Amino acid sequence: MTGVRSNLTIEDERVNAALTHVAQAGGDTSALMAEISGAMLFSVHRRFETETAPNGTPWARHAPRTAKARLKRSRKNAAGTQLGTPKILRDSNRLYSSIISEASSDEAAVGTNLVYAAIHQAGGTVTQYPQSRMVRFRKVGRQTRFAKKAHKRAYDRPVTYGARTIVIPARPYLGFSDTDQTEILAITEAHFEATISDVDRGHAP
Length: 205
Known about the structure:
By secondary structure, the protein is α+β, with helices and mostly antiparallel strands. It contains six helices and eight strands.
């Protein structure tokens, strides 16, 4: 992953002790880390659904102008009912769908390789420099509107966009919550107990 990722870095003494016990008992730490990374991935996807950061803080809402634009182009269902403004960070679902989990014998990680993923995680300012491009228009009465390329009565006109900066608020989706810590501890202890049980029955771990 070259975009942004969250590795398993646990400071909870109980979790670290349980991880150490599993390794010392000869347990399959690859399977353990795979299960932990799966739990981490589920937690990240859940944050997109609830639109909250790992610490439980709600994500910054859409600016009124953005929310209005999203509502205009949002889809309708079969009955013609407006489905509403798309969820935050899920306008195209590309970021949500790109998040994957990885695991090895001593590491669990969740992340994405999308270039723009990091700025949504940490926030920042994007600078757009002046640019000119041909834009297609059409006349509707006295109004001038944007037109599709195939429109027969449309015409092209050069349009220059000035420089501007866009401030993107931080909407953290990677990280560890108290609930994550508890879940990871439970998974680790379950693996430890299974390893000890195998040893007690005389099975090699």
